[in-house]
Amino acid sequence: MSYPKKISRETILGSAMAYIEAHGLAELSMRTLAAELGVTPNALYRYFASKAELEYAMAEEAGRLLLSALEKAAARKDPAQAIQAVAKAYIKFARGNSELYAVKMRHCASDDGRPDSHDAVWDFVMQLAASLPTPWSPEDLALSLWAFLHGMVELDRANLLDGRKPEAAMAVGLEVMLAGLMTRALPQA
């Protein structure tokens, strides 16, 4: 008598994330994932009721991984250096996990609610923006930084950087942005 292969929610999630990076999200189905894991599709439904639920879990995990990378990058740096390090970490994460990044972004404004990890990333970036001595609101600074970085990621994904690496163009943009921020810095008390 053969016994079913033991799997877990974490095993399924990790395999799904690896699968989409190798084959793309469009190729992922519960049936193909089950075949990858050597189990029946019904075994997956004990942990995820649908492919949509699995995608949401991947978006949540992507946010956690991104937050960890951003926090590590910013550790023990002054605010301007932290922003530069966070920007590099963001681009590196998006390039190294392009399909996972796309799933995360798809769920940022989901009508069904966004993953908690998105809000955690946003809170972290807001704290970083609030640490800059500028007259602008942290919300506006954080949104501007996110728009800049996400724009770089999307230009890179669409091969519109004329062969340049996004890190090079990003470095120029960040330097200009930070120089502008610092010229408008609030007077120190």
Describe the model.
The protein is an all-alpha fold and 189 residues long. The protein folds into two domains: 1-49, Arc Repressor Mutant, subunit A, CATH 1.10.10; 62-183, Tetracycline Repressor, domain 2 (Orthogonal Bundle), CATH 1.10.357. The chain is built from nine helices and no strands. Helix 5 packs across helix 6 and helix 7 crosses helix 8. The longest helix has 24 residues, at 51-74. The radius of gyration is 20 Å and the shape is elongated.
Strand proportion = under 5%
The string of secondary-structure elements, in order, is: HHHHHHHHH
Count of discrete structural domains:
2
Total number of strands: 0
Outline: elongated
Tags for this entry?
2 domains, Arc Repressor Mutant, subunit A, 189 residues, Tetracycline Repressor, domain 2, mainly alpha, 9 helices
Provide the fold topology:
Elements: H1 9-23, H2 30-37, H3 41-45, H4 51-74, H5 79-96, H6 98-106, H7 116-130, H8 138-157, H9 166-183
The gist of it:
The chain is an all-alpha fold and 189 residues long. The chain has two domains: 1-49, Arc Repressor Mutant, subunit A (Orthogonal Bundle), CATH 1.10.10; 62-183, Tetracycline Repressor, domain 2 (Orthogonal Bundle). The chain has nine helices and no strands.
